[in-house]
Fold this sequence. Notes:
This protein has helices at 2-11, 16-29, 83-89, 124-137, 153-158, 173-176, 219-230, 246-254, 265-274, 299-314, 317-324, 326-329; strands at residues 33-34, 98-102, 105-106, 110-112, 121-122, 143-147, 164-165, 180-181, 186-188, 190-195, 211-215, 238-243, 260-264, 278-281, 288-290, 293-294. By secondary structure, it is an alpha/beta fold. Helix 2 (16-29) packs across helix 8 (246-254) and helix 4 packs across helix 10 (299-314).
Amino acid sequence: MFVRRMRASLRGWGGVGAMAVGCVLALALVLLLPLTQSHGEDGDGDQGPGGQGFATGRQAKADSCVDSQAQNDTWSPSSADGTTIDAIKARTGAKRKLIVGVDQNSYRWGYRNPNNSGAELEGFDIDLVHRIAQDILGDPNAVQFKAIPTSQRIPAIQDGRVDMVVRTMTINCDRLKDVAFSAPYFKTGQQVLAPKSSSITGYNSTLAHKKICTAAGSTAYAKLDADKKSGKLVASADISTTVPSQLDCLVRLQLGEVDAVVTDGALAASQAAQDPTVELKGAAFTTEYYGVAMKQDATDLVRRVNQILVDYRADGWQASYDKWLSATLGTDSSASKPPAPQYLRTS
C-alpha cells in the first residue's frame, strides 16, 4: 500500500513528492533563504526593512478584537508616501527592491515551477507582490524574495528581515498583537486533507485515533488545539505533529506518518492537485481571510497596500485567480473573493 501510494504521488505534478522531500531537508537547514531573483543580500550599512523611517501610528493591540471582524482592523487606503515607503525608495542600486517574505513550495500560490527554465517564483501570491512593487517602485520585478516557513512569518517582520509577508497568512486577533495587516485579499477556511481511501469524512468523529498534521504557528493548529480543549474535537485525535511549513504535512501524509492534514482549503486543494491519491474531506469548518502582513508602525505602507488592493480587486485579482486557482478551486471565484473591505482605522 505504501509503495503504491508513493508511486502514485510521484506521478503527480512533476514528481512533487520527491521535490517536497527535498524541501523538508532544505527547511531543516535554512530558516530564512534569500531567493535568487534579487541576486543580492542585505549588506552592512544598508537600510533594510527594519531601519529608520517607519511611521509612528500603531495598529491597535486588539484587546477587544473579535476574529470574525479582525479583517477590518486596518488603515484606510492612501496613495501618499510616508517614512516607511521613503526608506524603501531610498535603497540604491541593486538593493532598491521591495523585500518580501513568501513561500516557494505552495503549488499555485508561491512555488518554483520545475517546468519553467528560469525557475522563477510563480503563483497567486507572487502576482500580488509584483503588483505592489510596480506601484511603489515602478518596476514589478523590483523584488527581493525571501522564503520563510510558516512559523517564521511574524518574526521575519518584527526583526526587520522583510518589508512585508505575502504568504497565505490569515488575519486574526492574536496576530494583530504582533503585526499590522492590509485589508483581506482572499477568503478561505480550514479543511481536512486525507488519502482518498481513508475512512475520514471531514472534521468530525472520524478523526478519532487519527494523527493530524498542521504547520507550527498556523491557524489550523490553533483551531485544533482550542477545539480539543473545549471538546469540539474528538479527544483521541492526535494533533502533536507540527512542521515548519504546510507542504511538509503533505510529505508526512505521503510517507504514511500521519493520517490527515488540516490546513486552509485553498492550500489543501492545491496539495490535492499535486498528489492524485489525496482529496479534501468535508466542507470548510472556519472562515478566514488572507492579508498582507507588515510592521505595526508601518502605517503608510499599510495604507499604500490597501490602496493597491482597491485597484487590484477591480483589475488584476480575477485574472490571477483564473490563471492560478480556477483549476483547483473552480471557475466561480465568488466564494474566494473577500467582501468589500471596511477600515476601522482612519487616523
